[in-house]
TrEMBL record:
Signal peptide: none annotated. Keywords: Cell inner membrane, Cell membrane, Membrane, Protein transport, Thylakoid, Translocation, Transmembrane, Transmembrane helix, Transport. The keyword Oxidoreductase does not apply. The chain crosses the membrane at residues 47-69. It is found in: Cell inner membrane; Cellular thylakoid membrane; Membrane. It comes from the Bacteria. It comes from Roseofilum casamattae BLCC-M143. NCBIfam families: secE_bact. Belongs to the SecE/SEC61-gamma family. PANTHER family: PROTEIN TRANSLOCASE SUBUNIT SECE. This is Protein translocase subunit SecE. Essential subunit of the Sec protein translocation channel SecYEG. Clamps together the 2 halves of SecY. May contact the channel plug during translocation. It is a single-pass membrane protein. The keyword Nucleotidyltransferase does not apply.
Length: 75
């Protein structure tokens, strides 16, 4: 009777171990397919992203100040 009770628990842990092993192998396989950017490409794209974020932050700031000025003139 004791063997029947422990068998599902042991089987469950083996399934978990098998699943974990397959998952890690799949992750490793997918990471080997990734095309990593060169250092120059990484720097140029980072600069482009930071420039666009700065531009949009300034535009939002300017529009906010315009709305504040307009509201102060109206009220």
């Amino acid at each position: 009777m004791a063997k029947k009770e422990t068998a599902p628990a042991q089987e469950k842990s083996e399934n978990l171990l098998e699943f974990s092993s397959k998952f890690l192998q799949g992750t490793k396989d997918e990471l080997q397919k990734v095309v990593w950017p060169s250092r120059q490409q990484l720097i140029s794209e980072s600069v482009a992203v930071m420039s666009m974020v700065s531009l949009f932050a300034f535009l939002i700031f300017a529009v906010d100040k315009l709305f504040i000025w307009t509201a102060s003139q109206v009220f």
